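Problem: given the chain below (508 residues), write out its structure.
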Amino acid sequence: MLALAYRSRVSSFVGPIKALNFKALSLARVPSPHHHQSHTLSRTRAPVRAAPSSLNSGSGSSIDVVGGVTRIKDLKVDTEVKVAGWVRTSRNQKTLSFIQLNDGSTHSGLQAVLPPQTSDTLPQTGASVVCIGNVVKSQGAGQDHELQVTSWKSYGSADSYPLAKKRHTLEYLRTLPHLRHRTNTVAAIARVRSTLSQGIHRFFESEGCINVMAPIITTSDCEGAGEMFNVNCPADEGDDKFFNKDVYLSVSGQLACEALACGLGSVYTFGPTFRAENSNTKKHLAEFYMLEPELAFCDKFGAMSNCERLIKYLVSQVWSLNPEEMNFFASFYDKTLPEKRDGILESEFAKVSYTEAVEKLQEEIKKDPSKWQFPDVTFGTDLQTEHERWLCETYTKKPTFIYDYPTKIKPFYMRLNEDPETVAAFDLLVPGIGELVGGSQREERLDVLEGRMEGMEGYEWYKDLRRYGTVPHSGYGMGFERLICYLSGVENIREANAFPRSPGVAEM
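Solution.
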């Protein structure tokens, strides 16, 4: 049995986490990923206590649709409840009718048992309904409990509903961004995303960090890449601009967080960031969420340790709070998820210097260069995804920090090591993804920073942080959608964001 209460400071905040036997979590009866789930009842089903025979499509017209609703995930046997949601499937039998209802709170939904309906009165897939009844142990296969309906009301019809009772591709579902969250995969991702988001805030509060909000409109390109969205105002004319200067959508909140950390202590920001990178790969979005802690009085190894504790905590949380969703992902997207989970929680992440990583890659590539898209790897090479994945999937076989990168391929704010050819930068590489986290210890020495910023304008405030009470500090950035893909096994990052923005795509 694997205890989730691993040793870290977070356990003192969230309280003791009950040991959870992950291997005992069943993968059986997991609904398919893209079509609506349907529970087929046994032909030998025992007789069900019938609801009043007068209960039909007209019944329940006086039911108040608003208020007093119990979420399906909170239902308990032997209670009378009112539930509301959307019909996944419905069917008639000779003596009974069945609705598979889902309100978004749980993966499996709820089977509601009604008196026999006609094809005209039985609510169809996609319709919204409100039901009042008793929660009882199920007498059929496919669910532990069901709702014996005593009164119900069909509130919103769904004629010509585009999500028919069949499997739909994820590509097709992206054409229906306003409806795709009603399907198994996208709804499961939404619940997992919520758990991870709340877990991030719990973790950093337990670490003594202050939550701050970095600005979205900025004048700084802290990545140095220049791939930023310009912000234009209709009133701008020539040099007469709303902000009196050029402004952009932020690519990172790091520099703002550095300013706040050098006065408030350790902080973190968690919000939208934007990259104008013309890339249509499965791992890039134009708008995505970024987690960025900035840790005061902390070196690169302290930041790596913080990052590892965070990942372990989030993995433990999502498997303990969303076991049904995680088993679903393990059934349909990545059967190695339980193994990946155990590897994260039971072992320390590897730490490999960039120099060692290059040496090991050179040895491997030399065996057969034709297997590699980018076979030329030397000191100073910006590692590609195939290099990153080999390092963490084959060389170390676990999440791996690569640290001390060449100075010439990293931004000005990263601290120079004693060997000026390298900086105190690090990336966290994870199997199946490659880079998940990028971070560094920041350059806190004014003279060194000024040397690296020669010719750069508009950063006097950044130098002031080193003039007035400078301190060692470190931080990192983690793409939230990439984390979701890593933990769920869903490959395309467009599924990890409810309304993905990418080149040529900005629906709604």
